[in-house]
Design brief:
Elements: H1 8-14, E1 23-26, E2 31-34, H2 41-51, H3 90-94, E3 103-108, H4 111-124, H5 146-162, H6 167-171, H7 178-182, E4 191-194, H8 198-211, H9 239-246, H10 248-254, H11 271-280, H12 298-304
Parallel strand pairs: 2-3, 3-4
Antiparallel strand pairs: 1-2
Subcellular location: Golgi apparatus membrane
InterPro entries: Carb_sulfotrans_8-10, Sulfotransferase
Region (Disordered): 269-305
Length: 305
């Protein structure tokens, strides 16, 4: 297990873009969650906010370009009780270890499923921030049909493979390597869970809380549902293999957890499901939210990052 001494934890996470911001701390119960996007992170952040003693009623989307209030938990400025890692003292950070009674965890996911989920949620359903990509050759067509979704996802995947410097691939945490964001060389995890092991996570966390005299339900609301379930059709014609090449680092570290032959695939989408997806991509829909003017150009966002 990684031993964290002095300020190795903070300095190590500072080297990973967004690493400090993605570290959520519930100090009173000694729980730390390293968030990895598209791996039930919205639900897990709500759980961490509750464990940290945040006033959950204050998490409201407001003027932020969120889909709805469930996503307001991503707005770090709304967190009051949970300190950011760099606000702790070096002495406090040096004690963060399972050996000192901390429960430190993250959740990973099969990159093939994670990429389709991220593409559907962030691009296909046209959340407000996606509009800056509208003129890109890989932007999905609308109105969507079963065939256009399959074809447009393939186009996106092959573009990612052919352009490793693509902004979304290099900068957006929804599309970056999980192993990079985990920073296992500096974060002393109690355990890294596969998404299918959520029952184990809840059991282990309950045991940790009970050992500290806490016996409370875990608040984990379901969030970010997508209208199109995963189907084998989106991984045909070389798409599956391309994703495996793109995320080779993830597969090298965790590939033993991801048996694609055991993935539960749904039947091909019905016209009704495609229509539901199209409805959610329309301006003003509950999923997409209000239209946003003046989207920030990707160059400016990259500079700001």
């Amino acid at each position: 297990m990684t031993e964290t001494t002095d300020d190795a934890l903070l300095e190590g996470l500072r080297k990973v873009p967004g690493g400090v911001w993605r570290t959520y701390i519930a100090p009173d119960v000694k729980v730390i969650y390293e968030a990895i996007n598209k791996n039930a992170c919205t639900s897990l952040k709500w759980m961490m906010a509750d464990l940290a003693g945040e006033d959950l009623s204050t998490f409201r989307a407001g003027a932020q370009p969120f889909i709805d209030d469930t996503e307001a938990v991503h707005h770090r400025d709304l967190w009051v009780q949970s300190p950011k890692l760099d606000r702790l003292s070096a002495e406090e950070r040096a004690t963060i270890s399972p050996e000192d009674g901390w429960f430190i965890f993250a959740v990973i996911r099969d990159p093939r499923l994670r990429l389709f989920s991220a593409w559907q949620n962030r691009i296909l359903l046209e959340i407000p921030n996606s509009q800056r990509w509208r003129d890109e050759p890989w932007f999905p067509r609308h109105p969507m049909t079963r065939d256009t979704v399959i074809e447009d996802f393939a186009t996106f995947v092959f573009h990612m493979e052919n352009d490793p410097e693509m902004w979304l691939r290099a900068k957006d945490p929804h599309f970056r390597d999980q192993v990079e964001m985990l920073a296992e060389d500096v974060v002393p995890y109690s355990r890294i869970y596969e998404l299918s092991e959520m029952a184990d996570l809840k059991q282990d966390l309950h045991a940790h809380l009970e050992a500290r005299g806490q016996n409370q339900d875990l608040y984990m609301p379901r969030a970010n549902p997508t209208p199109l379930p995963v189907t084998a059709e989106v991984f045909g014609n070389g798409v599956k293999e391309a994703i495996e090449r793109i995320y080779a680092a993830d597969f090298e570290r965790f590939g033993h957890l991801w048996d694609f032959s055991k993935v539960k695939m749904r039947d091909p989408w019905t016209p009704a499901q495609a229509a539901a997806g199209e409805h959610e991509s329309e301006p003003g829909s509950p999923h997409r939210g209000p239209p946003q003017d003046g989207a920030v150009p990707p160059q400016a966002r990259e500079h700001a990052a």
